Automatic annotation (TrEMBL), chains A, B, C, D:
Residues 1-12 have a biased composition (Polar residues). InterPro entries: Homeodomain-like_sf (IPR009057), HTH-type_TetR-like_transc_reg (IPR050109), HTH_TetR (IPR001647), TetR_C_15 (IPR041669). This is Helix-turn-helix domain containing protein. Residues 45-64 bind DNA. Pfam families: TetR_C_15, TetR_N. The keyword Kinase does not apply. Residues 1-22 are annotated as: Disordered. Residues 22-82 form the HTH tetR-type domain. Keywords: DNA-binding.
Length: 203, 203, 203, 203
DNA sequence: AATGAATGAGATTTCATTCAT
DNA sequence: CATGAATGAAATCTCATTCAT
């Protein structure tokens, strides 16, 4: 008796056990990334994602029991990537100039073009549960706060909090400016603006 | 995304002739705004929009032959609103302080909460044709450029172009910061940052 | 964005407005009756039911937004039929012999062969919500109680209650005995047994 | 009801060789009993049954190559149980009063609550092949006939045949009356009714 | 012109069964 | 043997759009 759509309120991805399975999951995730990035969450279909990965639809559902679970897994993967980048910035925070530090921060979101577009799409999709969306946002903000604290330990918690919000939004703008004409100059100006403000803060 | 039976490649909104019709169109647009803002473009259904406006579904299709045409009309309406605001800024550009000017610009997107959320949703929706999305974006950029030129006529066309891109993205960030904790302080910092940069440019 | 299976917890059948619609609903209900009776609730598919009625699947869902709603409508229709029969018995309860009265009661379920098989199938189906099932059962019991009270007003409420339970189960057995070899003699015996007991009670 | 990949028209349960296997089969059967009783044949899934028995799905298919075969095995087991009870009644048929005899017969189906609910579910399921269903029914009828013959050897074969049909249906009613309000009085009345009829027959 | 019932392609999800490991 | 990941046919339900009334 098919029909009961996933009754579990929060279904999560199942981990593969065999080595072939792990490879297959990799393919499925990549297929999902490009499909979501291209079509958006709602317009992308599970059937198309499976087809893109040359996998039968049943396999897709073996690992991701729900379209939502698939989105969640993707966001988690991207979250891990961002955290790693931010951790790296923490490590070198005191060994670089302010300009370099600004650059590192502002470029956090600029790697992995497709994954980022996918993540941004999912973050905007009203159909994706707010939980996962909030998780990624918070993770990005706290990671940025960590980097700022590593660079400017003299700032209070509140100041760090607010600065992190500012910087995160500056990061996002960097990405969006790529679609405009002459993105190089636009980003250079943006960089200057943020560096100026950061310099004023940190002192 | 069910079957699109419409084969017309580009359907646009039809203008109503009588005053009763104009009132009805108004209601339909408003219903569409809230529905799109709440559910997103894909999840919102034409039936629900008509119901929200207490209008029969046939009426909705009378004026907006396509879901896409409806989105387009909404974006056009919002575009007009933004242009008006930017025009007003042009007029007073030379009579205000730099801080006030910055404030005016950064707050351009902060009015009409629901309409803005609707517009941003539609701008992200991959299902809405890129044309209308590009139109609104360009309109916002050129309007901003006009305001900047009114304030700083000494800048070259290129410089204005780039500055407009920067400012537009700064405007967007103002909106996004509203969802974070302590948006007041975040926005104040942001304002300071942009004012600093604007001051450096304009001279 | 299809996918959200009927989120309304209890969807009910929608009434048709046009005359063609009423005819169509009739056809759909009849198709559903035979299909459920033949295949059972779970094995019967909405697609097959629509096809049997030569109706597009969309039309089926127009009137019965859920497979469950369809079952409910069927049970309600059968309920109405049974109530009518029991009311008729009430009217003639005092004008017939005990044997005739027994006969009338025991034969209540023996008309409308297919509808009855459909109803019994639905009553057993674990997938049909208990509510509708209980409704029909109670309706049958209270209708029978009414008939018994009309015949034997001297009995207490409790006695009527219990007698109704007994008689209802006797009715059901009448139906089941139809599948055995020599159903005529079996039913005659059954009739004698119940009549004997009824005679002993009523006095 | 998803695709039945099994092309074997009639698959039956395989007997286990080792004692550990016999234990496992026992667990699987018990898990199947409760699952079928709770969810019905169609809604119960092989995966869930295996999980309930804490057995891998492969093991389940080792012993019962088909969902149908599993149902068949369950019905056979229940058949054996009923036959044993009826045999016991045969043995004591001449040593008890008519009231006791009636009681014994009417209570045949009242033991093993879950197994019985499972069996009744399977008997109603249109998806279970008619063969096994008929087998159990016939077995119950012939067993009952045996008991009646042991008690009343003077009756002709035809009379026994018909009486068995009547008694079997009386048994079933006893079970169904358990769900109504005041089942004790209902059953007492039922008992009186059947005893009265049996007395009239046997003489 | 106005209405809203009718349509059907297509989306998500399930699960009996197999077979590689 | 034992296991449980893999498969894909098939089921339920949605909704943009049309067109008869």
């Amino acid at each position: 008796m098919p029909s009961q759509k996933s009754n579990a309120t929060s279904a999560t991805a199942r981990a593969p056990k065999r080595s072939r399975g792990r490879r297959r999951v990799e393919d499925l995730l990549n297929a999902a990334v490009t499909t979501f990035a291209d079509k958006g969450f709602d317009a992308a279909t599970m059937t198309e994602i499976a087809a893109t990965a040359s996998a039968p639809i049943g396999s897709l559902y073996q690992f991701f029991p729900t379209k939502t679970a698939l989105a969640q897994a993707l966001l988690a993967r991207y979250d891990a990537h961002l955290s790693a980048r931010l951790d790296a910035i923490c490590d070198s925070a005191t060994e670089v100039t302010l300009g370099e530090f600004t650059s590192l921060l502002l470029n956090v979101l600029m790697s992995l073009e497709v994954e980022r577009r996918c993540a941004m799409t999912l973050l905007e999709a009203h159909t994706v549960p707010p939980d996962c969306r909030k998780t990624l946002r918070r993770s990005l903000r706290t990671g940025t706060a960590r980097a700022l604290r590593a660079r400017a330990p003299e700032l209070s918690d509140d100041e760090i909090e607010v600065a992190a919000v500012v910087v995160v939004n500056a990061m996002k703008a960097m990405v969006h400016m790529g679609e405009e004409a002459d993105p190089v100059r636009a980003r250079a100006n943006w960089h200057a603006m943020v560096e100026g403000w950061l310099g004023a803060q940190c002192h």
